[in-house]
Amino acid sequence: MPLYKTIQHNSSTQILIWNITESFEQLNQEVQLNEKSQKRLDGMKSEMHQRAFLSIRKLLAQAGYSDFDLYYDEFGKPHLINEKHISITHSHHFSAIILSNEAVGIDIEMQREKIQKIAHKFVNDKELERLQKINTNDYIKKLTVKWGAKEAIFKIRNEKGISFKDHIQVAPFELNETQTIANLNYNGINQQFTIHFSELDTNFTLVYAFENNMPTQAN
Ligand SMILES: CC(C)(COP(=O)(O)OP(=O)(O)OC[C@H]1O[C@@H](n2cnc3c(N)ncnc32)[C@H](O)[C@@H]1OP(=O)(O)O)[C@@H](O)C(=O)NCCC(=O)NCCS
User: Fold this and answer.
1) How much distance in Å is there from the Cα of 155 to the middle of ligand 1?
2) 147-157: per-residue pLDDT in tens?
3) Which of 35, 61, 180, 215 has a CA between 20 and 30 Å from the CA of residue 43?
4) Which of 58, 154, 156, 206 to mutate to test the pocket of ligand 1 (most atoms within 8 A of CB)?
5) Per CATH, domain 107-217 is 3.40.1180.10
6) Is the separation of the CB atoms in 109 and 205 below 8 Å?
């Protein structure tokens, strides 16, 4: 039962991470799915994706929920039938959920060299120039945190049209820190988020985000 890690972030926020080592058959035997989820699972082309999807339900069970407590809105954002907020992520052999009384978003990303090639698509030019002054390894790690932060914020706001590069800025941080802030400026709305980050294993990054304030009208 490879529950990899549980992080009790605060009294109302818990992060549960699964290390997916089980076969599809094993997970499939252990997990009960509602009709919609069963259809989704059956339609998935990749077995890894199916295992990740099922492992999320194992995490739900750890927290006292089942697939029957979970539903998705029209954008694909997951919700629980009670008041708790939930966010979901999967990356290779890791999957995770975050549960909170507050609006939250979570992302796990593998640290990959390839991220350097797409950096200009999600980080602005000034920020990129500063980041490029550090060594390659740290550059990749920092880019991965930034990417994860923007994905996590996107999962909270869930709005079409948000550009990672133009609308979300992550404040500078060091890799030996564990948190930073980020701002979303979109459609005349300004909102600040707290970003928490850490390493999972050697080359995976975990990021989760909280809203610091309700959206305010930008001047
Ligand atoms: C939807 C999105 C956030 C998923 O993130 P991802 O890193 O690809 O994948 P993850 O495994 O971390 O997350 C997948 C989970 O996110 C959740 N999710 C999907 N759409 C969502 C949405 N609109 N809002 C919140 N959560 C969402 C789902 O729970 C999904 O898993 P599940 O369907 O198996 O339950 C991402 O694909 C996306 O659309 N990003 C914004 C687009 C963008 O601007 N990209 C970059 C431009 S440079």
Assistant:
1) 6
2) 999 999 999 99
3) 61
4) 154
5) no
6) yes
